[in-house]
Write a structure and sequence with these properties.
By secondary structure, this protein is mainly α. It is about 55% helix and about 5% strand. It contains 9 helices and 4 strands; from the N terminus they run ααβααβαβααβαα. The strands form 2 sheets. Strands 1-2 form a two-stranded antiparallel ribbon. The chain has a two-stranded antiparallel sheet with strand order 3-4. The radius of gyration is 18 Å and the shape is globular.
């Protein structure tokens, strides 16, 4: 950032870092970098959230022939909590879900999960696929909905030792990552 603008402030660097290090692990993966850049390209007012108007404008820049129905479908897939704006977290989770749901059915099958995990790591084992599937298919109906996916992602972000349970220390650390000023109470 200093090479681009020698007058950049530390606060600006910290804001950009916070926007890029989505999982708050102290490093930015290529995937996090791309997702941060994609989010910033849509969030034209730099508010930290995307509005439907910003999404519509971004989709029209990509494809001037995009229909309102296409905008509404993408919006519905992104605004998970239905509050009228899309946070970075919602954006990343929607992008991750869409990357796995290759048939765009709105649910993930175990075959789609397996293919996705193999794309990320060709050496992934069937046992690893089965463990992740068990952690995602909460209702055991053979498919993973967007809601199950988001819940599994949220749980995994807190369960840092992948034990399948969350300790008070893991919860405390997760809350501190979200808000360093969080109190013990």
């Amino acid at each position: 950032m200093k090479r681009e603008n020698p007058a950049v402030t530390e606060a600006q660097v910290q804001r950009r870092w916070a926007a890029m290090d989505f999982n708050k692990d102290g490093s930015v993966s290529r995937k996090e970098f791309v997702q941060a850049e994609d989010f910033a390209a849509i969030d034209t007012d730099s508010s930290g959230t995307i509005t439907i108007d910003e999404l519509r404008a971004a989709m029209k820049r990509e494809n001037p022939a995009v229909t309102e129905a296409q905008v509404q479908r993408r919006w519905a897939a992104m605004d998970f909590n239905k509050d009228g704006s899309v946070s970075r977290k919602e954006f990343v989770q929607a992008e991750d879900f869409a990357a796995i749901d290759t048939d765009s059915s709105g649910t993930i099958t175990i075959d789609e999960l397996r293919a996705s995990m193999k794309r990320e790591n060709p050496a992934v084992t069937e046992a690893q696929v089965q463990r992740r599937w068990a952690a995602m298919d909460f209702n055991k109906d053979g498919s993973v909905s967007r809601k199950e996916f988001v819940q599994a992602e949220d749980f995994a972000a807190i369960d840092t030792d992948s034990s399948g349970t969350i300790t008070i220390d893991e919860l405390r650390a997760a809350m501190k990552r979200e808000n360093p000023a969080v109190t013990e109470a």
